[in-house]
Each structure stands twice: as C-alpha cells, then as structure tokens.
Amino acid sequence: MGLGPTGSRKQRPSTIGLEPLTIAPVEVHRIAGEIALKTPEPDAAKAEAYFERALAVARGQQAKSSEMRAAMPSANQDWEEFFL
Asked: Does residue 42 belong to any structural domain of this protein?
C-alpha cells in the first residue's frame, strides 16, 4: 500500500467498481458494418449503409479521426474489389 497525499496510508478498496462502457455512436455504426462483412454470409450493402451512417455521424460531430476510421473499411473493400 502506498501513502496518500496527506502522508497517511491509503486503504485498498475491498471491491473494484467498473465504470459502464460508453461507445460513441459513430463507433457503433462502424463496428456494425464490420460485423456485417464478417458474418458467414457477408452483406456488403448492409455494411455500406452502416459505414455511411458512421460517416454522417462523424461529419455532424466534426470528428475527423472518427470520420477517418469510419471511411477506412469502405475504402478497403473498394480497394479489394478493384484488385481482386
């Protein structure tokens, strides 16, 4: 056990509480698109709709990094279709 800010010993909690997991809506749509592509019968149209929704949400939030993550799966799929 370490010392607290006042120099006294800190008590260890008897249980550790877990914070609820929060996932941004853009990530929910992006992950749903990924799942649609990885099912036994991939549904590219459904995946594309999820990716488009993720892009729209990211653009609405002006979240460039989220927008990039949402665009990547769609771009990868286009790349694979072009070269395969």
From this structure: yes
